[in-house]
């Protein structure tokens, strides 16, 4: 069975995961069929044969465990291997599914190369069993462990001869047979390839001698458990000692069978060393910042969560400080990103030399670091943070033979039983850090509830909570506002989607009130995903409106433009809702787009390749608008309403709008004037040759429901 001919059934209720698995396996030559639930999977298996099943454990309706039970009534582990996919590595779940007859268990989303390795192993075992079935006419024989699981009597009187011995010696994994004293009776030839031992090296020797000394007690416990529970299949991951004294990670599978009344342990040893080390590497990268090697934000928040539990249960006191490099962006813009990255690395090394080993020093994003000092009240921790501040103040950063002074603003917060959550502690420390910057930078600032300097930011923190609540309770609403051609062209509906929020009392809240907090507390991407999802779903559910639609404009934040997950989400929703991409236009403000030209351009080009259009919103508000324009591949310029609303009375505003429109047209871009509030403005725009108008003078925002009814 080559991978080209191998057919895999992937069963998962999550469409994104199904698609990712199918794409990756197809690229490796597998034929993949997908099913979204257990009943669909069983129907597919009735219709056609499969070589392997990837089965989600937690599914609505018929669970993965129920599907597995059903399959094992008809197919053995070698006839149809099943690898379980689960959201966690819960030991109970693993043990339960293995007892039901699963061949393997993988935590999702996980790493696809590891999943591929597991699939290849199971297919290799199946291939060997299939070949022997064909050659010997056996009905259901696999490797010794599987054979024992199906029928222990196969080993009686013939362990070292005939079909079983042939199969045993040719199974493409290392196999060991042990007696109840845990001595090695027999190994197959693949043991030589895996661990380097010849049969004569290991026979009659204690099997524990072939584990590293520190792992021998654990190996002994596992093997004794197998002897004590002979009716179960036992699996574990552990290190083995190779003949060259190196250690390697293996997955061992054990089952007790009886030969002439004597219990024997059949043990398979699968090499997972490369996959395990890759997993360790991936886990390290998942927990650490790539640039500095420090723990990342998620790791810090996990540790902060444990500290907070300790504060509540033991009344312990700790201190968190958020550390921001002053004027970092100026150096980054002046000297380039390479200089900025090098400064971050040097600051990280300096902070590491100052902090204690038991402190948690992390890079939490951009030029922000955090330090968690455990079992140290705020009044004592201040000395440590002052030492950090002073050390960096004395530090000189050198780049291209020029020296630069560096300073820090540090916000401190006490972590004690009065703190409710990790998010609250992080927000308070962040607020204190910004207060330190506001006070002149290069200083410490301690968070106090009644600190007048913090009231504004504290209000934004409350908004952050309200935004999360609104997302949870689905209290955002979509409106649309027409964008009309100044010279009628009969091209169909063209409108921009606008966002509003209902507060706890049902009152409508404008975005100017909650978006600043969303940007500050990294909630803008969540909001953007909500808007994209609901807009595309609405268009899908109203096919007559979609047919009539010329262009629908959707706003995206600057945070989304730097987020690959958001880009993937947008592409997935366009595909799943079957919206013609050429009918979608994504808008981003000029300020957000120019903050990272390279990233913004890549984001825009990826969606443009699908057929989407892009508009640059509030154009003209930036200091160097025209200089940036040639580097941004947008289709529309939306002229800042601050200029448009005054063109009938202010000659400077009129000249600005005229210049933007002319340069936009020279560069092949269409122009949209915002804040068109009356007929005199519209007449002037028509005279200037502006393409489109938007504002209360041509159409007010209306809820989507009202638009549908009209």
Summarize the structure.
The chain is of the alpha/beta class and 710 residues long. Helices cover 46% and strands 22% of the residues.
Q: Over all CA atoms, what is the radius of gyration?
A: 32 Å
* CATH fold category name of the largest domain: TIM Barrel
**What form results from the Cα inertia axes?**
globular
Total number of helical segments?
29
Uncertain residue segments: 135-163
SSE blueprint:
Blueprint (H helix, E strand, L loop, with lengths): L6 E5 L3 H13 L3 E5 L2 H10 L4 E5 L7 H9 L9 E5 L4 H10 L3 E4 L4 H25 L7 H7 L11 H9 L3 E5 L5 E4 L2 H6 L3 H4 L13 H13 L5 E8 L5 E13 L2 E10 L1 H15 L9 H18 L3 E8 L2 H8 L1 H18 L5 E6 L2 E6 L4 H17 L1 E4 L2 E4 L2 E8 L6 H17 L4 E4 L8 H19 L2 E7 L1 E2 L7 E10 L5 E2 L1 H10 L3 H18 L1 H6 E7 L2 H4 L2 H14 L6 E6 H5 L2 H14 L2 E7 L5 H5 L6 E4 L1 H4 L6 H16 L3 E4 L5 H10 L3 E2 L8 E2 H6 L1
Parallel strand pairs: 1-2, 1-3, 3-4, 4-5, 16-17, 20-22, 22-23, 23-24, 24-25, 25-26, 26-27
Antiparallel strand pairs: 6-7, 6-10, 8-9, 9-10, 11-13, 11-16, 12-13, 14-15, 18-20, 18-28, 19-27, 20-21
Defining traits:
710 residues; alpha/beta; Rossmann fold; Beta-Lactamase; Alpha-Beta Plaits; 4 domains; 11-stranded mixed beta sheet; 5-stranded parallel beta sheet; 29 helices; 46% helix; globular
Q: What would you say this structure looks like, in words?
A:
- It contains 29 helices and 28 strands.
- The chain folds into four domains: 7-134, 3-Layer(aba) Sandwich (Rossmann fold); 144-276, Beta-Lactamase, CATH 3.30.450; 292-449, Alpha-Beta Plaits (2-Layer Sandwich), CATH 3.30.70; 464-709, TIM Barrel.
- The strands form five sheets. Strands 18, 19, 20, 21, 22, 23, 24, 25, 26, 27 and 28 form an eleven-stranded mixed beta sheet that branches. A five-stranded parallel beta sheet has the order 2-1-3-4-5, sandwiched between helices.
- The model is unreliable at 135-163 (pLDDT under 50).
- The protein is of the alpha/beta class.
- It is globular and about 105 Å long.
